[in-house]
Structures are given as structure tokens and as C-alpha cells.
Amino acid sequence: xxxxxxxxxxxxxxxxxxxxxxxxxxxxxxxxxxxxxxxxxxxxxxxxxxxxxxxxxxxxxxxxxxxxxxxxxxxxxxxxxxxxxxxxxxxxxxxxxxxxxxxxxxxxxxxxxxxxxxxxxxxxxxxxxxxxxxxxxxxxxxxxxxxxxxxxxxxxxxxxxxxxxxxxxxxxxxxxxxxxxxxxxxxxxxxxxxxxxxxxxxxxxxxxxxxxxxxxxxxxxxxxxxxxxxxxxxxxxxxxxxxxxxxxxxxxxxxxxxxxxxxxxxxxxxxxxxxxxxxxxxxxxxxxxxxxxxxxxxxxxxxxxxxxxxxxxxxxxxxxxxxxxxxxxxxxxxxxxxxxxxxxxxxxxxxxxxxxxxxxxxxxxxxxxxxxxxxxxxxxxxxxxxxxxxxxxxxxxxxxxxxxxxxxxxxxxxxxxxxxxxxxxxxxxxxxxxx
Length: 435
Prior knowledge:
Layout: E1 2-6, E2 12-17, E3 23-30, H1 44-51, H2 61-69, E4 74-79, E5 84-91, H3 95-108, H4 113-131, H5 134-147, H6 160-165, H7 168-178, E6 184-190, H8 194-205, E7 223-225, E8 227-231, E9 237-244, H9 253-264, H10 270-278, E10 285-292, E11 295-304, H11 309-326, H12 330-346, H13 351-365, H14 371-379, H15 383-394, E12 400-405, H16 410-422, E13 432-434
Parallel strand pairs: 2-6, 7-13, 8-12
Antiparallel strand pairs: 1-2, 3-5, 3-6, 4-5, 9-11, 9-12, 10-11
């Protein structure tokens, strides 16, 4: 059962009561991520996420995590391109402590210069670790290739140069303008008393005012047709091919999920069967969507040997064209409806996953997608929906490419997909621009 409230200060609250569990998951999600940053402040959202754990007026950094861990709970946070979330999962007997600690972090963090200096070293090492991970480098390169200078291309972790420039004054200014009740949501899922919960939230978050009237506004970026590559001394060549997707909460979103499942979603998918099982060209290959507010992209990822790259690209490109032209049978449509329903339902078996889902839906859409509504939308997918997504996303073909590996002959590789890319030359008709 879902309930939606708004506190007197404008903070939205979404709750979901589950009687058969003994846990609670509480999250504070703020509509702020790397997409909300200026270039010179890129990385500050993620850095602030770290700093909220570095001490408040009441608690030291150690006490913040220790008080939750001492009662068997878990506390953590993450930053994405469009949101930051701070969350706790614990036994429902510790709901009051969970809410009080999260509120203390959001409202009373100190951002001491000494702690900032220490955390700069931590985040710089996180960036170094990411730079040593080919998939992370590839993801950043792919974003730069297709989004160009738009803030959607900014890496969530930021740059080392930026991290070194952050100080207490910059952080406090950013928090005051970007962290406010009106662009935040508290999500609670599990077993709890509703009246007691709302009393706790009012007592702990009611004084949160925020400063300024910042409201996230996003321009839909033009998708750029270009290529990026990074040379690294590694064995495999990592490849990402991007093509059009759908924005977050698009009415055909589940049709795209279904088609991605058929094309590159598992061991029985077209890409897996043809590129790995039939030809033995790779170990990992899949396709996936990245929906954002106002825009979205689809990706094909694989890792191959340098010697197999041209053949793998050729097969992938041909399979994409074939899939876009032929589509899927009614039998395959019904089978994959069951697959994505099962994936959705199994993904909501924990209080934390439901908490995240409810928070994101409320934050970005200002409404809750109930399980019944999602299942109904999946059941109602028909051939017209499938054809719309094929025409919109798959038929235009590959827009941009990114490669990470050693001695990359990217120009040679791009010749394999160049005919598809050239189709966008000098045309912004579909929000795509040839570079």
C-alpha cells in the first residue's frame, strides 16, 4: 500500500507498507547529480555525497556509520547523473534512529576543511580506480561521444583538477542552492506505524528550509554522431555502440525494455547467440538502455580481441539492421512479456529496491508507478508499440562509437559502421548531428 504526503516545508514523502517483513528502508533522494553541474564544478555532487558522511554538529564520521552498524543496519549513498540518494536499511525497531541520522546528515553536516582535504585524497583514488577499469572509461567516452559538451557527458566522479579545487565555501554554497525540500523526496518502505513515521519525519525534517529556489531544468541534447577512443595497455578491445533510446517514463519504455531483452538481454538473446555462441568472438555482449529526463540512448557493449574486432562489429551491425527490419513474432512478444514481468517482480523483493523505485518515480515524475500499473503496461504491449520503438530507436542505426584498448585502429573500425553514421550528415531532423 502506497501513501504520498507533503510536509509543511514542501518535502515530499512516499511510503509503502509491507506487513510480512521486519525491516525498513529509508532514503532521502535529491534531484541533483552530475547533469546539474557547471563544467568547472563537475564532480561536486559526488564529492558532497562523500562529505555528508564526514561529520555533523552531533556526530563524528565514525559515529554516523557506527550507530547504524551497531544495530545491524546498513548505511550508504550513491550519485547518478540526475539524482543523489542517502539511505539506510535496518530492522524496523530502529526506524527512529535511521530517520534521525539521515536528517542529521542532510541538515547539520559541517564540511570542515580538514575533512575535505582528507576526502579529496579518497575521491582522487576512486577516480584513479575508475581510470583503471576499462568499462568505466568506455562509459565516460561513450557519453562524451554522443552528448558532446552537454552536462550529460560529464563524468559523475568529476576530474582530479576539480576535486582539488573544492573547499568548504564552494561546497556550502552548492548545498544551499541545490539541496532543498522542494526538489527532494523521503521514501520509506517496510513495516512501520504510519502515524508514528510521519511524526518522526516532521520532527526531524520539518526544520529543513533550504535556500534559494533552484529547480532542475534540462535541455534535451542533440545526439552527436562521432567517435571517442582511449588507448590503454590491456588485452581486450572494449567497444560501445550507441543509438537512439527513449526518455525516462516514456509511454513506450517497456516496449524498449522488451526489445533490448530480445536483442541483447541474456544468454538466449540475438547478440549472445550469434556473436558469442555461433562465432566465439567474445565472452560478454549485451544491449541496454540509458533513459534520462527528456532524452535517452541505447547501447551495445562487448569486449573482443583486437584481431576479432572488425568481424564482431560487422556481425553486430548486420544483426542490428536485421532486427530493426524484421522485428519479432507474436510468440516471441508474449514470451518476453513474461520475462520482463518476472525480472521486474523479482527486482522488487527487497524493501530497499522498492524504496529506490518509489523515490525515483516520485522525484522525477511526481507520482508513483504501482506494481499493478507496471504489470498492466507490460501486458498491454502490442505490435504497434514494438514497431514504433523499432522505427524510432533501432532502424536509424548506430549513432556514435567508443573504444578502449591498445593501439586502436578506430578509423578502420568506424568504416564498418560509417554508412549508418553518414545517414545523419548535416541533419538535425531527429535531434542528431553529424560531427
